[in-house]
């Protein structure tokens, strides 16, 4: 047995995976006991390292350095990182429908029954496995019932409930946890060169997801929310602020529309009926993207209100998400803060009931204003 697989040791490839001790233990034990499963379900929150762990798992088995269990530097490990190794296939939802289709599954199944090109095993990783269409899932199920001996499928998802229960039952589940704030802070400092104060703030806003921290860092939402509260303090008309906030969301919508547009080359290959179907699908994708952005804004508003309560009670800036905003916090009385939080809690219900977003935003701005 290699040193990497001795008791209490973990393969080298897993040492860059943070805060996922249980997942790593499950995978290490499967290698140590020579019982690598034909299929795994990696499930848990977005942005916590599920796909990264799947690639690290492939390294531990395909890397020629068995002593280390994934040296991370050899040609094999480098190609796995770059997703160019012939025995590693990453399957993503692409193409006309942004789904993983039956045709894609058929191609994968055909490949899975061939011997690996270089290593002892082939790894097929489904990124966003919940985007496998139901007909494609049904087709894939037949392969899981009689799996090829030298292929491991890894289904990566934040929404396991969208995967057929019959598929889930044939995969070994590996659950992933939220990352610790200190872990996210360290990643932001070491890998993104952020200063400690900025990294701390983003880590606190991340909800345990490095992807959320990077999303906040790379866009202007925190500044937009801070500006909303500044305008409310200065008695600007909530209706005008609501209008500006809707304009901001419209800008995000236009970005999403550009991302999910149908290009001219695709149109030439599609029938009018297929174009209409694709437009419906892309429209749903765009609305989901805007809804996600709106949810992120609501989360930041919740953080601001939380800060107000903490500062009212403790006067301690070190515990705040927005320490730079303490000067305006005293404009809100605790009763108003609790009332705003109560309304904020209802907003998601209003959205689920398809109440017009503009009306929800206008009502929310009046609920947040310290002057009404």
Task: Describe the model.
- This protein is of the alpha/beta class and 372 residues long.
- It has 2 domains: 3-175, Rossmann fold; 219-368, no CATH class.
- The protein has 16 helices and 5 strands.
- The chain has helices spanning 21-32, 50-62, 75-82, 102-112, 134-145, 165-168, 181-192, 196-205, 210-218, 221-233, 238-259, 264-269, 272-314, 326-329, 334-352, 357-368; strands spanning 39-43, 88-91, 122-127, 151-157, 172-175.
- A 5-stranded parallel beta sheet has the order 2-3-4-1-5, covered by helices on one side.
- β2, α4 and β3 form a beta-alpha-beta unit.
- 30% of the residues are buried.
- The mean pLDDT is 88.
Distance between the termini: 71 Å
CATH class value of the largest domain: Alpha Beta
Query: Remind me, CATH topology of the largest domain?
Result: Rossmann fold
What percent strand? 5-15%
Poorly predicted sequence stretches spanning 5 or more consecutive residues: none
Order of helices and strands: HEHHEHEHEHEHHHHHHHHHH
Q: Rough shape?
A: globular
CATH homology group of the largest domain: P-loop containing nucleotide triphosphate hydrolases
E-strand count: 5
User: Mean of residue pLDDT?
Assistant: 88
Q: Main sheet: which strands, in order across?
A: 2-3-4-1-5
Sheet bearing the most strands, described?
A: 5 strands, parallel
CATH architecture of the largest domain: 3-Layer(aba) Sandwich
State the helix count.
16
The total domain count is 2
Rg (C-alpha, Å)? 24 Å
Structural class: alpha/beta
How helix-rich are the residues, as a percent range?
55-70%
